[in-house]
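Sequence design from tokenized structure. All designs in this work follow the same two-part layout: the structure record, then the generated sequence. An example of the structure record is given first.
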């Protein structure tokens, strides 16, 4: 019936059928009736197949069948369906003779013995490499009667793993595996069994089979992952056949495994994966939360397992509310935005995969929100000068409100001058007339804020003070010592080549405008006089009864303060503004920025004090920087040395290329910065007290503020104790414009540039600087040009006379510095190339305007061209550069331009100049790339940054500015990565010279922030409406890297101590921008002021 596929009925009863071929009817699935009764069926082991078939018919009910046994007589008449193997004495096969491994050569005959017994007699089947051999397909193969496999005329294809299987109706059995090894000549390994990807549950065992043949016989070894040897683990063994066996599988056993088969001829390998399936296990578990109504709450819930579990959330056993407020993040975190009172309840996180699930329950408590309500309010006060005053203010609310204070619109910060108690009371130490004004107490929480204000008046009694007798002698001594130190410095710097990085730093920051020099000198004399008076007063006291610093406002009578201001030169160098020439001021800018704002002519002008977002923080409330006294604790911890912060947190050898922007992003930022701010440095490199150089004495005597080198610093090996650093020059009386100076003000610093984006880096920030670079002889409104290159393109003119920072090495070149609108134009070659580009742009536009307007005189052409160049710079900055730096979030924070607002002061803030805008230092590559017309390196090669400082000869002698410009816009910039901040060219080799101590830009930035009284990072978080950070863990939203937070903790001890610059640099970037959240707040505030307050 093998050829019949459909057969419904078959009647074979009343015949003499004794035996049936096994499987005769098994394939006839359509059978309905089968009769085999009344036959001479011999019921032996050969008929068991029929018994199983009839049982199947009976169980399914789809067919009727009848068959009875005739023999043997003891079961005569029994239905075949009831017969069992035991009744028939059927016996499973058993092997009586096993085959053995065989080594053969070509053309021989091989015998694999296999004998087996059983009832009925077993059928012998041979397998090779787990596949059944067909004797019909290969005439060389023969199965002998006793089960022996004979292979004649052996070939290489015969080699492999052989196994004999004995099979009858009672079952089957296999012999051991044996190998036929074929030897004709040495043979490279070849796999007989490749390992296969295998899935296994945790706790079970798994085997990756692997075997190979070859001559000599290959040795099997295993590796895991990236070819690392297997771990020494008793759970892991290699079987005799080469398989990898792992007992009690763990999750970490998951991965890629490689089987190597090696002999003297070759080495081959094959890989497979063990995929460990595991029940979900929670790695991050949510905790019960209590939040205020309207807040956002996160329940983090993460789990691991294989397959990766899916996180599902329920509330009270039911589904979550289907609205936009409830969101399950990709990480598994449940986020509920704008929490409502009805969101309170029990939530369940479930982690589910095909293996199983796990659950965890948490509870959300929602408290109603309460806006701040004042418990105590301040009232107007009148106090005596020189006293300490406490102004009460406290508030309640839910969440607990944070109290901040503003004076005349500027936020007050913790310092030697001001202290805000935990309940919110403001203490003002050493009150002077400068402290008079309106104070506003602001209580703010996430629900809202409330404010209340008071007016503080200061009464100055007409009595003599302890310092009055010393005024005359102190002013004479101050003038003498300050002038001696300044003259010594000028002689040292300008009468010889620079001999150290300190000289380079001092030279390129030294003011070129004589008026700037005189104003800085006056500020130094004024402050030095007060210091000498205080020293005289304290020398006359037997004991300091208060145990505190002497009060400056109680030191000298107001009339004597005014005398000091007159004799020091402070009042003599106040500018008298004249904005009467409206024909000029309505059309053009002044070079010094005055008269831009006609209501406040000095706003944004050069040589004025930096503005502040927050009140300054000095140790004594007047002029001593934070950390100047190493033993003084701040919030229970000493401030770290800036150099230690640099080496621990900031310096990096590793650079990650920016995947979006080129190095030009950095270079435009530096060029722009040199249009906005330049702090006037101290005019002396020597201390006023005895004239010794600051780098040799390593003290903090004015104007020295040396950067001390920690004991384990690499610089110590060179014998260095400190790095050169001097304080910025102070403004006389903090920049007051009053003719009478009757109070002591906290130290403020001078911005030498205009605060507007007005191309002052091209034209200068004073009439004196502008005249130096103009070509007045031609009367064509041009800027002076220097030598003309072979390409026909001019370079900047050379500076004449000191400073001589570009002639630092007579072995390199005698070429002097270039002259441009900003004195830092030679700092590095990339910057110099941009200065050159804009000088050419001015002359190009001026030439075009003259052709269009031949009747214009030189001044008209100059000012019209200057107006266009300034507009170009503003357009590039606001339309092209800032969107890349700010991203979409930052540009929304900046807001759209709505026109000029005369009530906005465009002045550059101290925080911007000293910390925030120095973020550009993190974008600097360690090399300046120089590319030819094919964007290949020029013959002279690329330049390490430390070789590009003050090197104009490289532009003159090595191809001009074009290779540098191609390197700026043709090479990826440096990506801002919180763990890769300033490259070591800036922290270890800044202005490096042979056998000298190079400077560290990061340490200098931190030290400059302390010099300028910049408040700590925490105060600016509060200013920018970020959360108050009482622990380092509170910083995790803005500084996600736990290693960075741990370093900050080791360095500063308290988050209230962290300097602004390093904290801004390690914040994580807001997506789409190059800034962290606090830095974005500070920069958007400054650029909004620059834009909106520029007429």
């Amino acid at each position: 019936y093998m050829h019949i596929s459909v057969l419904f009925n078959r009647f074979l009863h009343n015949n003499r059928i004794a035996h049936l071929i096994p499987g005769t009817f098994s394939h006839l699935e359509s059978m309905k009736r089968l009769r085999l009764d009344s036959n001479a069926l011999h019921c032996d082991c050969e008929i068991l197949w029929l018994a199983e078939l009839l049982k199947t018919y009976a169980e399914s009910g789809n067919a009727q069948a009848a068959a009875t046994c005739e023999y043997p007589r003891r079961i005569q008449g029994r239905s075949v369906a009831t017969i069992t193997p035991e009744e028939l004495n059927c016996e499973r096969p058993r092997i009586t003779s096993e085959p053995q491994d065989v080594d053969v050569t070509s053309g021989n005959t091989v015998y694999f013995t296999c004998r087996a017994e059983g009832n009925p007699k077993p059928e012998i089947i041979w397998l090779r490499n787990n596949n059944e051999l067909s004797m019909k397909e290969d005439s060389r193969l023969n199965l002998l009667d006793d089960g022996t496999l004979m292979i004649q005329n052996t070939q290489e294809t015969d080699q492999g793993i052989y196994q004999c299987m004995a099979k009858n109706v009672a079952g089957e059995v296999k012999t051991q595996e044996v190998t036929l090894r074929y030897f004709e000549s040495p043979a490279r390994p070849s796999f007989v069994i490749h390992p296969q990807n295998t899935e296994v549950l945790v706790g079970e065992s798994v085997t990756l089979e692997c075997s190979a043949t070859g001559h000599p016989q290959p040795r099997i070894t295993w590796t895991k992952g990236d070819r690392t040897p297997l771990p020494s683990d008793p759970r892991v063994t290699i079987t005799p056949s080469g398989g990898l066996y792992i007992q009690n599988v763990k999750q970490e056993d998951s991965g890629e495994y490689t089987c190597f088969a090696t002999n003297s001829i070759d080495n081959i390998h094959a890989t497979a994966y063990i995929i460990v399936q595991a029940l979900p296990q929670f790695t991050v578990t949510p905790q019960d939360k209590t939040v205020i109504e309207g807040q956002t709450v996160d329940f983090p819930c993460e789990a691991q397992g294989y397959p990766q579990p899916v996180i599902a959330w329920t509330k009270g056993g039911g589904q979550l509310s289907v609205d936009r407020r409830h969101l399950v993040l990709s990480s598994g975190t449940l986020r509920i935005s704008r929490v409502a009172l009805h969101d309170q309840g029990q939530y369940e996180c479930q982690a589910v995969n095909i293996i199983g699930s796990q659950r965890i329950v948490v509870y959300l408590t929602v408290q109603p929100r309460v806006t701040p309500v004042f418990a105590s309010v301040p009232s107007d006060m009148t106090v005596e000068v020189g006293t300490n005053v406490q102004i009460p203010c406290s508030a309640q609310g839910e969440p607990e409100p944070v109290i901040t204070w503003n004076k005349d619109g500027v936020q007050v910060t913790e310092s030697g001058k001001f202290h805000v108690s935990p309940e919110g009371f403001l203490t003002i130490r050493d009150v002077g007339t400068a402290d008079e004004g309106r104070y506003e107490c602001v209580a703010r929480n996430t629900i809202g804020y409330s404010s209340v204000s008071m007016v503080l008046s200061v009464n100055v009694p007409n009595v003599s003070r302890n310092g009055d007798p010393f005024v005359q002698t102190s002013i004479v001594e101050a003038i003498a010592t300050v002038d001696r130190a300044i003259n010594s410095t000028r002689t040292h710097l300008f009468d010889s080549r620079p001999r150290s990085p300190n000289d380079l730093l001092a030279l390129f920051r030294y003011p070129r405008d004589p008026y700037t020099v005189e104003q800085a000198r006056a500020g130094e004399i004024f402050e030095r006089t007060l210091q000498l008076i205080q020293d005289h007063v304290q020398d006359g006291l037997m004991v300091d009864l208060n145990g505190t610093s002497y009060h400056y406002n109680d030191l000298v009578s107001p009339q004597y303060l005014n005398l000091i201001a007159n004799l020091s030169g402070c009042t003599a160098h106040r500018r008298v503004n004249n904005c009467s020439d409206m024909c000029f001021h309505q059309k053009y800018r002044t070079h010094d920025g005055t008269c831009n704002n006609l209501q406040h002519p000095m706003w944004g002008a050069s040589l004025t004090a930096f503005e502040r977002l927050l009140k300054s923080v000095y140790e004594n409330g007047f002029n001593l920087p934070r950390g100047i006294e190493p033993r003084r604790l701040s919030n229970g911890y000493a401030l770290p040395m800036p150099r230690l912060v640099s080496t621990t947190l900031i310096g990096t050898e590793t650079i990650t290329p920016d995947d979006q922007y080129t190095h030009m992003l950095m270079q435009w930022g530096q060029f722009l910065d040199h249009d906005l701010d330049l702090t006037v440095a101290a005019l002396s490199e020597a201390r006023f007290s005895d004239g010794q150089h600051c780098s040799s004495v390593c003290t903090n005597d004015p104007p020295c503020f040396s950067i001390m080198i920690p004991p384990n610093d690499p610089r110590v090996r060179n014998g260095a104790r400190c790095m050169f650093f001097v304080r910025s020059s102070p403004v006389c009386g903090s920049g007051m414009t009053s003719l009478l100076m009757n109070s002591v003000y906290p130290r403020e610093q001078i911005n030498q540039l205009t605060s507007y984006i007005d191309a002052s880096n091209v034209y200068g920030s004073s009439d004196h600087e502008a005249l130096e670079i103009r070509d007045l002889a031609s009367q064509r409104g041009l800027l002076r040009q220097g030598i003309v290159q072979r390409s026909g393109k001019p370079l900047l003119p050379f500076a004449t006379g000191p400073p001589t920072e570009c002639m630092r090495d007579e072995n390199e070149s005698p070429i002097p510095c270039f002259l441009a609108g900003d004195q830092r134009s030679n700092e590095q070659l990339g910057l110099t190339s941009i200065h050159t580009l804009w000088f050419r742009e001015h002359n190009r536009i001026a030439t075009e305007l003259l052709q269009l307007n031949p009747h214009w005189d030189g001044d008209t052409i100059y000012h019209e061209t200057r107006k266009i160049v300034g507009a170009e710079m503003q357009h590039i900055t606001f339309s092209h550069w800032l969107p890349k730096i700010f991203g979409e979030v930052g540009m929304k924070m900046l807001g759209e331009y709505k026109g000029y607002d005369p009530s906005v002061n465009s002045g550059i803030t101290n925080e911007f100049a000293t910390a925030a805008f120095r973020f550009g230092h993190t974008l600097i590559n360690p090399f300046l790339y120089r590319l030819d017309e094919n964007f290949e390196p020029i013959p002279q090669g690329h330049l390490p940054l430390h070789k590009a400082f003050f090197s104009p000869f490289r532009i003159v002698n090595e191809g001009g500015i074009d290779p540098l410009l191609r390197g700026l816009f043709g090479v990826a910039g440096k990506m801002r990565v919180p763990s890769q901040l300033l490259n070591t060219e800036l922290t270890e080799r800044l202005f490096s010279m042979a056998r000298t101590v190079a400077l560290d830009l990061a340490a200098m930035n931190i030290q400059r922030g302390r010099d300028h009284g910049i408040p700590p990072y925490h105060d600016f978080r509060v200013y920018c409406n970020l959360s108050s950070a009482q622990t380092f863990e509170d910083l995790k939203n803005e500084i996600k890297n736990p290693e960075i937070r741990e370093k900050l903790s080791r360095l500063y001890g308290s988050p209230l101590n962290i300097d602004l610059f390093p904290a801004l640099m390690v914040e994580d970037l807001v997506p789409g921008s190059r800034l962290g959240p606090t830095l974005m707040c500070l920069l958007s505030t400054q650029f909004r002021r620059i834009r909106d307050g520029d007429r």
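Residues 187-276 form a domain with the Immunoglobulin-like fold (CATH 2.60.40.10). We note this feature because it recurs in several other targets discussed in the main text.
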